Amino acid sequence: MSTARGLLLAALCSFGLALAQSPFPSKPVRLIVTSPPGGSNDILNRIVGAKLGELLAQPVLIDNRPGASGFVAAEMVAKSAPDGYTLLAATEATLVANPLFFRNVPYDPQRDFAPVTIAVEIGYVLLVHPSVPAKSVEELIALARTAPGRLNYASSGNGSAFHIGMELFKRMAGVDIVHVPFKGSALSVNAMLAGRCRSC
After folding, report:
1. What tens digit of pLDDT does each residue of 106-126 get?
2. How far apart are CA 85 and CA 31, in angstroms?
3. Which residues on neighbouring strands pair with residue 180, listed in sequence order?
4. Within the chain, what is the greatest distance between any pair of CA atoms?
5. Per-residue pLDDT tens for 158-198?
6. Is there a cis peptide before residue 25, judged by omega within 30 degrees of 0?
7. For 12-117, where are the E strands, in sequence order?
């Protein structure tokens, strides 16, 4: 080994040692959320981000990047520096459904991300607009069977748990209800409340 190469190697080792000893985090952390503000995913991640900020003694900045079934947010995080300062608040659609349902996914869930924790588990409910003459699941199924394709339902996006759950419901019930995807649950709930989507 020449002297020049030896000095370069020593310099790189010293730099690596300095990085290893620097405290983390030393600057704000970005938490990228796959949905727009106001929905359940956004609200839950703001709560998680606030607590995480307390634990890390650094601000955790919520960055909403909705659209394309989570592709926008996930691709942004996948292409960011792997230094722990950019986190993805992923949903089941982002990491599980998208690679199964879409051909050109701009990220690899196993290669591009390292799991940290399951932050929350939530249940789902079936709601209908008050104008729908159905007061139970049985009545909704009966109504849908008499009017195939005339009812529609809102979801937080293609491949989301809302979408997959309703498609399973449709198959099990033998009904035809039209899917109307939105960029997040807040938008889908607003559409349902306004009567633009009559089930949710």
Report:
1. 999 999 999 888 888 878 888
2. 8
3. 154
4. 85
5. 877 888 889 999 999 999 999 998 877 777 777 777 776 65
6. yes
7. 29-33, 60-64, 86-89
